[in-house]
Structure formats: structure tokens, C-alpha cells
């Protein structure tokens, strides 16, 4: 497998981490991650995969700059301006 990173560099994964327990706010999820060895740029945010966003019924409000995740009847909202 090869990946094209945000800066258009091509990278090969070091491995895959499956069923990793992740805490997002008050929610807990199992998630899979592709592990890539690269020099991080703090100006480039982590981009969540579409499958994660779909599973957690994510709503992205571009005008309000918010990301809302739904789990059952509970929700958590992140102000994306504060995450950078």
C-alpha cells in the first residue's frame, strides 16, 4: 500500500494498528490507524478518515467552525478554531 500525504509526498506505511482504544471528549471508540513514519508539520492538522466520521455521525459546520460527533443520544462538539 502507498499513501499520498497532504504535502503530496508518497509514503509506505510502517504498519497498521487495529482496534486501538481512543478517547474523544467523553466518548470511547475502537479505531484502526495506518502508521506512517514522516516528519510532522504542526501547522497541518490530523484529518480523520471518512469511515470514522460516518460511523460517528459527524456533522461539520463550516460557518460555525465546529465538528459534532454523535454516539447514541449523546453529542460532543469541538470548536475547530481552538484545535490548531
UniProtKB/TrEMBL annotation:
The keyword Transcription regulation belongs to this UniProt entry's keyword annotation: no
Keyword Nucleus among record annotations: no
Listed InterPro entries: Peptidase_aspartic_dom_sf
Domain of life: Eukaryota
Record key words, sorted: Nucleotidyltransferase, RNA-directed DNA polymerase, Transferase
GO molecular-function terms, A-Z: RNA-directed DNA polymerase activity
Protein's UniProt name: Reverse transcriptase domain-containing protein
Organism, scientific name: Tanacetum cinerariifolium
